[in-house]
Design brief:
The chain is of the alpha/beta class. The chain has two domains: 237 residues, Rossmann fold; 60 residues, Alpha-Beta Plaits. The protein contains eleven helices and 13 strands. A hairpin with a 2-residue loop joins strand 1 and strand 2. The protein is elongated and about 75 Å long. It starts with a strand and ends with a helix.
């Protein structure tokens, strides 16, 4: 497997707070990788260590086959959760500046920026000051700064934070387009729906430790499902007494049945076909949200995030 990023036994503490505690996982090249966990799990601290903004206390990180250095950093794109634009600069001037930080000459940075400005409907604003842009426009400008150097690996920390639904959909499409062209995407999020729509590889972390990691398909297969949707003709009241049935949710056209852990849906199917005309019997694939809750619990969004401690 060709690896874009490899973390090996990473530890990081801030004072008495253990933000990352023995974190290890690999990110294959060409994948869309989600670093998942509730607020305070250690996601942002991990992203900052990958980017060499802060250093781990112990352990090793390799990016594109080597430790982080200037030549590697120029092959990366990074969009932090806290957006960092220059409000008094004109949009195109600012993009040229960010391009120069990544080693681009002004003319080349401008050449690359113009198509992105047109694509994101900012071309008429290129000579306006950043502070004149709406929040959504500034989010688009921030994204352009991240991709000007045509990164091999694009790293985004909570990229959908604060975005309206229209921009969320736009950015999902852009990210998938970049991935299709060969860019490895790495993003952190606590929003499981976003991860499920984008990712083919994930690592779920909690309290700075890896809970599970691997391909989304294999993880879903491993966890299976104890939920069945059943559409039928006839009187289904008896279903509540079928061994293994824990709860039934009734909808207009079907029922959703929760089976006890370890129970095979086969017994339910046999009972249903014996007394009903079964129109549909479907064992539901577990959602990433279901797996998240199963592994780390509902949690609390009120926890202190390690990224806040990283600024201390």
């Amino acid at each position: 497997m060709d690896v874009a990023v490899a973390l090996n036994d990473i530890h990081k503490t801030f004072g008495t707070h253990r933000a990352v505690d023995g974190l290890s996982f690999e990110i294959p090249r060409g994948t869309v990788f989600g670093l998942l966990g509730r607020n305070g799990a250690g996601k942002s601290t991990t992203i900052r260590m990958i980017m060499d903004i802060i250093r781990p206390d112990s352990g090793s990180i390799e990016i594109l086959g080597r430790p982080m250095d200037g030549s590697v950093k120029d092959r990366l794109g990074y969009m932090p959760e806290e957006r960092g634009l220059y409000p008094k600069m004109k949009v195109l001037d600012m993009l040229e500046f960010f391009g120069s930080v990544k080693g681009l000459k002004p003319a080349e940075a401008r050449r690359r920026a113009i198509p992105w400005l047109e694509r994101l409907e900012l071309d008429e604003w290129k000579d306006k000051k950043v502070e004149d842009l709406s929040k959504g426009m500034q989010q688009k400008a921030q994204f352009i700064t991240t991709v000007l150097n045509q990164p091999e690996v694009l790293i985004l920390d909570e990229p959908f934070s604060g975005m309206d639904p229209v921009n969320q959909e736009l950015f999902r499409d852009l990210l998938l387009e970049l991935n299709k062209a060969g860019t490895t995407l790495i993003f952190s999020t606590h929003v499981m729906e976003s991860a499920e729509r984008l990712c083919n590889q994930i690592a779920l972390i909690d309290s700075g430790r890896t809970v599970l990691s691997g391909s989304l398909a294999s993880i879903k297969k491993k966890f299976g499902s104890n939920t069945v949707q059943l559409e039928f003709d006839g009187d289904g009241d008896f279903l509540e007494s079928v061994p293994g049935v824990e709860k039934i949710h009734r909808y207009e056209r079907f029922v959703e049945i929760n089976m006890a852990e370890g129970e095979s849906p086969q017994r339910l199917l046999e009972a249903a076909t014996g007394r009903l005309v079964v129109r549909r019997f479907e064992v539901m694939e577990p959602t990433l949200h279901n797996i998240f809750i199963d592994q780390v619990g509902p949690g609390s969004d009120g926890e202190t995030d390690a990224k806040e401690l990283a600024h201390a």
